[in-house]
Design brief:
heterodimer; A: mainly alpha; 2 strands; flat; B: alpha/beta; six-stranded mixed β-sheet; 23 helices; globular
């Protein structure tokens, strides 16, 4: 570990404030795009469908002025997984796999079908990561919480008060960097007094033991800070009911267009992929 | 009708044996500006929470805005009338977006959206954050966040705002701007209740209420609180409570001068120069505050250059450091900083919040490592792979801000033992070590060893946390604002302990916002935006090099000496301590 600076500045994703058309969309519309493309990435049966989702995410990122290099860099953690699955495909074989064998080494072999499976995993994972990366780049924590509230409002009731729930979610998200900052401070304080942090010499168990003394002070500080926030909210007349609900301004034309076209495109691509491409492209 | 009225109010926390407030009666009127002072744990915060129903009195009557806060139905009316700004900026921000956060209060009142928009605009305008309306709150600086909290209070259109130590976590410049904002609001007719440890801030108020151990001990004009009786050795009420005098009065008092409360350094300088001009050697040095020993001091200032001839302890070579390096949110914290700290010196890091002080401290024990450049600790480069980080860190332990938040054992002595035990100490040797340092930190071992940490006061916890760091008996100490948020008494005792350690030859690096603490160091390093602006003995830094743009004040002794000079006094040298300033007069060197 290079530094003991691992927490303070973390955020859920990395919001990039570049004022594009997509930044200005309502949170619910952003969720629609997110879920639509994720559905496509998971459910499309061929490389073409999943590849379309990946490509669409890159195009969206380009239009949202999110640096592509930033998104592509986040794909790095996929590669160990890909190598692992590649190894597994090589070591084991599918029952009834009659596709062409590409490499063989004794009883181990790699067939076209196995290669296809690895490629599917790769493209799906890449698409998912890029989509999520794009979403968090254009959505603040506040919007993320508000989006949930907007989407869930129709089912809000006395027993399930969505507004309160959304506020709790928003507060929880806002608290992550705060608590992380506390943890970092305490790690530093303990490291200064000889606790094992930032050293790679000790075993896993010793490392785990070093973190144990942190549990108590971090928990206490988290509770204290939560209590302070609760008090501040109470002092500002928060009771959990009777808040003003901001009236809706009419949607922009572009936003209406996006809301209509996203489901059509997603379903369209899926249908084409399932009924035409998957019967047409059959590598095995 | 009074805005707030308390009659023989008592308050006791559920799990506490001692009442937090006893028999308090007071009233606050519309448009008043009052300061609430007292030591840590004297009940100030509890008292202000009674004012708006965040706590309910155990007995006695409380009327806020003419209503009883014990009735739930009254709470909304009370809390929109009497709002509160808390100490920690980050702990009172509800939303991730500036304007939404300001709108939080008004929308809880169920106002129309149009009305809310107007209020948000006005409140942000008043605190000067209008252009930040759409920004995420976490991108604001500490000072801006505190102003956001004030905007949130203003949007309720209150008749009274309570500031609960709301300036204590801000750097001097931001603090001054928040204070002038408070003054402005007061002029607009909003009552201000300011809870503070800073007596200069307290004198800005028209009325002072002092608490001691839960009892009201003073309620009246500031003059009565800070002025002593007729005899020179008698103490003012502020001093006898262990609180400080306002800075000018404090300095004047070390010469036995009596000045009016709102006197400036100029006034004091005038008086001294006039007295000296009339040949009055009788700038009467009172016996209070050890005046007699002061007169025996040599008038010569100590030799500042001496320090550079010694062994080097820590060296910064073209050090650059950034947080989140390699991401879009990269922040440069230090830019090409080079300087050298000789062994055995006490050095103060000063500068505004975010200037790089704390980063520089953490680089000095490898909690952080430079992005480029080198930090050498007694010749060892922190970037070398072979460096034993654990040994390095224990030889220059870093004490975080509010180090008490890292205490984790149940009993006091166990926590102090954590470090020495990691050094391999056991049995009687360990006990001796712990005993020594608890005693020296002002927590007698016999009395405190088995005390539960959670039952200690704020000041005691700070001392315990510092004892845990000192118990490592390291050559070097790194301390991030060791005196912050402590009452003046605890602050003084922490500093006298540091000075003792310094005299024993330890190298001490500390960051501070208080220039009066900084001037007591051998060397001062001034940071601004990650650059080292000045480095040297305090005499050079504060007299010769000082620039307004650093965003820090001059120490008060310096302000005073400058005032003396402006009055025409011919100073043979620039004093950096009250003793030195005094010897200017003793030796009859003034015209």
């Amino acid at each position: 570990m290079k530094n003991l600076e691992f927490f303070r500045n973390i955020s859920i994703g990395q919001y990039i404030d570049s004022h594009s058309l997509f930044h200005g969309l309502r949170p619910a519309t952003k969720y629609l795009l997110l879920l639509g493309l994720m559905l496509l990435a998971i459910a499309a049966p061929t490389l073409a469908g999943a590849g379309f989702a990946f490509f669409a995410a890159l195009v969206l990122a380009q239009f949202s002025k999110v640096p592509l290099s930033f998104l592509l860099r986040s794909l790095k953690p996929i590669f160990p997984v890909i190598i692992l699955s590649f190894m597994l495909q090589f070591l084991f074989r599918w029952p009834g796999d009659s596709s062409i064998t590409l490499i063989s080494l004794g009883i181990f072999s790699l067939t076209v079908r196995e290669l296809w499976v690895v490629a599917m995993i790769l493209i799906r994972a890449a698409a998912m990561m890029t989509i999520v990366g794009w979403f968090t780049s254009i959505t603040t924590e506040a919007e993320a919480a508000k989006g949930i509230e907007d989407i869930a409002r129709p089912i809000s009731s006395k027993t399930l008060p969505i507004h309160r729930l959304a506020l709790a979610v928003a507060a929880a998200i806002r608290f992550i960097p705060i608590i992380a900052g506390e943890l970092e401070e305490i790690v530093k304080a303990q490291a200064s007094r000889g606790a094992d942090f930032g050293q790679d010499t000790k075993g896993l168990l010793a490392k785990a033991r070093a973190y144990l003394p942190l549990f108590v002070p971090v928990t206490i500080r988290a509770l204290e800070r939560a209590e302070m926030l609760a008090e501040a909210m109470e002092a500002r007349c928060y009771t959990g009911e009777g808040q003003t609900v901001a009236p809706k301004t009419p949607m922009k034309r572009s936003e209406v267009l996006i809301r209509f076209s996203v489901p059509i495109i997603v379903i369209g691509v899926l249908v084409v992929d399932v009924y035409f491409i998957s019967t047409w492209i059959r590598p095995y | 009708m009074h805005l707030i009225e308390l009659h023989s109010v008592n308050f006791q926390y559920e799990n506490s044996a001692q009442p937090a407030l006893q028999n308090i009666s007071l009233s606050v009127d519309e448009g008043e500006y009052l300061a609430l002072v007292g030591n840590n744990g004297s009940g100030k915060s509890t008292l202000v929470r009674l004012f708006n129903g965040l706590r309910l009195a155990s007995s006695g009557t409380v009327l806020a805005a003419g209503k009883n806060p014990a009735e739930r139905a009254n709470l909304q009316c009370i809390r929109r009338t009497i709002t509160i700004v808390f100490q920690s900026p980050t702990d009172q921000i509800v939303s991730s977006c500036v304007e939404e956060d300001v709108a939080f209060g008004p929308s809880n009142l169920g106002l129309s959206q149009a009305e809310i928009d107007v209020r948000v605009q006005m409140a942000l305008q008043a605190v000067g954050l209008l252009e930040h309306a759409k920004r995420p709150t976490r991108f604001l600086s500490g000072g801006q966040q505190q102003k956001l909290a004030i905007a949130g209070a203003l949007a309720m259109q209150p008749r009274c705002i309570i500031f609960d130590e709301a300036t204590s976590m801000l750097d001097p410049k931001t603090r001054a701007s928040v204070l002038s904002l408070m003054k402005e609001l007061s002029e607009q007719g909003i009552a201000i209740i300011h809870v503070t440890h800073d007596m200069d801030e307290a004198t800005q108020a028209g009325r002072i209420i002092a608490l001691d151990k839960g009892r009201l001990v003073y309620d009246g004009k500031p003059e009565g609180f800070f002025t002593a009786g007729e005899r020179p050795q008698s103490l003012s009420l502020a001093e006898s409570l262990g609180l400080e005098l306002p800075s000018v009065l404090k300095l004047a008092r070390s010469w036995g001068l009596t000045l009016p409360l709102n006197a400036s350094y100029q006034d004091m300088a005038k008086q001294l120069v006039a007295a000296a001009g009339q040949g009055k050697t009788g700038i009467s040095v009172s016996s209070a505050n050890g005046g007699s020993s002061l007169s025996q001091k040599s008038p010569q200032p100590r030799n500042d250059v001496l320090f550079f001839t010694q062994i080097e302890a820590i060296r910064y070579n073209n050090v650059r450091f950034s947080y989140l390096s390699g991401t879009t949110n990269e922040v440069m914290a230090l830019k090409d900083v080079s300087f050298l700290i000789p062994k055995g010196t006490m050095i103060a890091f000063v500068g505004m919040t975010g200037s790089g002080k704390s980063t520089a401290l953490q680089l000095a024990n490898a909690l952080l490592k430079p992005v480029s450049g080198d930090v050498l600790i007694f010749g060892r480069n922190t970037r070398e792979k072979s460096v034993d980080l654990k040994a390095l860190r224990m030889n220059a332990p870093f004490s975080i801000q509010r180090p008490e938040s890292a205490l984790f054992e149940a009993h006091a002595a166990d926590d102090v033992a954590f470090g020495p035990r990691n050094q391999g100490l056991k049995g009687p040797a360990l006990v001796r070590r712990v005993e020594t340092w608890m005693n020296r930190a002002g927590l007698p071992f016999i009395e405190f060893r088995d005390r539960l940490i959670k039952t200690l006061s704020g000041g005691e916890k700070r001392k315990l946390a510092l004892a845990g760091v000192f118990a490592l008996e390291s050559d070097t100490l790194l301390l991030d604002e060791p005196g912050a948020a402590l009452d003046p008494g605890s602050r003084a005792s922490v500093f006298s302990l540091l000075e003792q350690l310094h005299e024993q030859g330890k190298t001490i690096l500390f960051a501070t916002h208080s220039m009066d603490e900084a001037i007591r160091a051998d060397l001062v390093a001034v940071f601004k935006d990650g650059c080292l602006m000045a480095f040297g003995p305090p005499r050079d830094v504060f007299y010769r090099d000082y620039e307004e743009s650093w965003g820090i004040d001059r120490p008060r002794i310096v302000q005073f000496a400058m005032a003396l000079e402006a009055e025409g006094a011919n100073l043979p040298y620039y004093p950096v301590s009250a003793e030195e300033a005094l010897s200017l007069f003793e030796a009859g060197r003034l015209p």
